[in-house]
Amino acid sequence: MKVYDDKHIKNVVFVGAHNSGKTTLAETMLFEAGLINRRGSVENKNTVADYHEIELEKSNSIFATPLHTEWRNYKINIIDTPGLDDFIGEVISSIRVADTIVTLINGQQGVEVGTEIIWNYIDKYRKPTLFVINQIDHPGFNAEKNLNSIRNLVGNNAVQIQYPIKKDGAQCIIDVLKMKMYKFSSEGGKPDKLEIPEDQKEKADYLHNELVEKAAENDEDLMEKFFENGSLTEDEMRKGIKAGMLNHELFPVFCVSALNDMGSGRLMGFIDNVCPAAADVKIGESTAGQDINPVRDEPTILFVFKTVHQPNLGQVSFFKVKRGEIKLNDKLVNSRTGETETLNQLFIMDGKQRISVSRLTVGDIGASLKLKSTETNDTLHTLEKETIVKPIQYPQPRFKKAIMAVNNKDEEKLSEALKKIHSQDPTVEISYSKEGRQLIVACQGELHLAIVEWILKNVYGVEVNFDKPKISFRETIQRSANANYRHKKQSGGSGQFAQVHIKIEPFYENMPEPEGFNIRGKEEVKLPWGGKLIFYNCIVGGA
Asked: Do residues 26 and 154 share a domain?
């Protein structure tokens, strides 16, 4: 396979709310580029992206799936992500390695709660973003509603590149960057490229001028040309749009019908010609605050952003080349463990299909198998220069349950399976409550927990039950108290006599030693939940 340089690699991540059409658009783009000769569908359970058994059973994306396509001498790496909030960890990992975020909007719904949640992470990382309004040919589509919902989310920096119309009964798209109309047949595919109709020229000119102004705002040279000439060329507009996207201050809006293959080719052309390439992204940072320059001629750094455990393959580690390049059989050091890993298998992945490669350069995304001690968030680097890429920060769990194997003999098997599930999805946290004597699984919600249960049963062969975590009730000493006991027994001879005094009072840090007592010994006991007990042995009398 051809090795692309970082100027011709585009890493895009498809995000959006549930049922916005991410998987369908990815499938259509692979079809348009000729990588597949027949388009699958979510309903028919035969898409490239959704290949896990549980995804086919649920008809939903559950895992982030790396794909790739080649379009007009560019390589587009696509990561198709789930839309349900319970699997937000998959989305966050993908956003971290993206150069451009493609946010899909369900044309019937507009921006939804799921879109807003994802946007918070996009905005946090200030990633270049474009919006794609899907399902433009659906009877329930409302163009104004969709555009207004996007602008309510990101502000007026959301700028239309396209808008849909119906002309002579056919679905059409007006493109105000190219100032052309694309007319599609009922089967979709390659459109007729036509002049903009007279009844649309006023609106198209208005939106074109708006786009010119927004493009000019992001580059001083372009601003001067705009003031001098009153307009910009198409190439100058592309330059300004890219600058605005890199500054996280311009968000182009496209429209497509992913299901019927309308507008996907034009979208891929925009990704090629305008969206930031791997070479354009801002310098990354290490945990030590050092810059990581994304250049090829410096020591190699790989960042592992995703781990998958597959029964027939073992552990698959997905990485982005942050600097340098990686070749087959290269040896790299894991910054966390200090162990040397040999990458004796190197792939790019299209769903479950592995394509062997001999080399990947800076900016590209790849995978390797059966690394000894490498997990998600690990950095692999050359022997001579240690660097640790800033790790991905995942949200805290919102839902907890106690978990136990139905068969007691499976307890050890359950523990090993849960470790692999956490390795694959760090938003699933596993802990043991010493006080409640329970194994606790914490995740993002009930659906998330149901997926964990399915994986345990169908992948690892462990049936489990869930229960409420036990609540540990604790009491503490509130005020001082005294008590005494006198023991006296006379049964002949010298007899028995003892008197015990006890004083209990609240403890606080730097508390002075008790006064008026002859302290013979002292013992401190730290409690598992963070409390402390201090015992003083004071003998106040004796024979």
From this structure: yes
SS3 87: helix
What stretches of 222-311 adopt beta strand conformation (E)? 251-255, 284-285, 291-292, 301-310
Residues 355, 488: one domain?
A: no
Phi, psi of 536 (to 5 degrees): -110, 130
Number of structural domains found in the chain: 4
> Residue 42's domain spans which residues?
6-282
Question: Residue 408 falls within a domain, yes or no?
Answer: yes
Give Cα separations from 168 to 137, 179, 197 (angstroms). Answer: 14, 19, 11
Tell me whether residue 288 is in a domain.
no
CA 210, 213, 217, 219 dihedral sign is positive
Query: Are 442 and 301 members of one domain?
Result: no
Looking at 136-177, list the stretches that DSSP marks H as alpha helix, in order from N- to C-terminal side.
Answer: 143-154
> Same structural domain for residues 212 and 191?
yes
**28 and 80 Cβ atoms separated by less than 8 Å:** no
Give the pLDDT of residue 413. 94
The CATH number that applies at residue 204 is 3.40.50.300
The C-alpha atoms of residue 516 and residue 519 are separated, in whole angstroms, by 9
Q: What pTM did the predictor assign?
A: 0.87
Instruction: Give the end of a domain, one of 442, 467, 492.
Output: 467
Decide if 1 is inside a domain.
Answer: no
Measured torsion, CA atoms of residues 206, 211, 217, 220, in degrees rounded to the nearest 10: -110
Whether 348 contacts 405, CB under 8 Å: no
Does one domain contain both 78 and 174?
yes
Do 186 and 80 fall into the same domain? yes
The answer on 445 and 366 residing in a single domain is no
- Say if residue 450 is in the same domain as residue 486: no
d(CA 325, CA 303): 12
Residues 6+ apart with CB under 8 A from 90: 62, 63, 64, 81, 82, 306, 425
| Residue whose entry in the numeric block shows the structure tokens 């690990």 | 378
pLDDT tens digits for 349-404?
A: 999 999 999 999 999 999 999 898 999 999 999 876 678 889 999 999 999 999 99
Buried b (16+ CB within 10 A) or exposed e, 294-327: beeeeebbbbbbbbbbeeeeebbbbbbbbbbbbe
**Angle CA 39–41–46, to nearest 5:** 85
| Dihedral-angle region of residue 88 (phi above 0 means left; psi in -120 to 50 means alpha; beta otherwise) | alpha
Q: Which residues of the chain have pLDDT under 70?
A: 1, 283-284, 286-289, 384-385, 492, 529, 540-543
Backbone angles phi, psi at 409, to 5 degrees: -70, -15
Model pLDDT, residue 296: 87
Among 323, 350, 381, residue at a domain's last position = 381
pLDDT digits (tens, 9 = 90+) for 107-149: 999 999 999 999 999 999 999 999 999 999 999 899 999 999 9
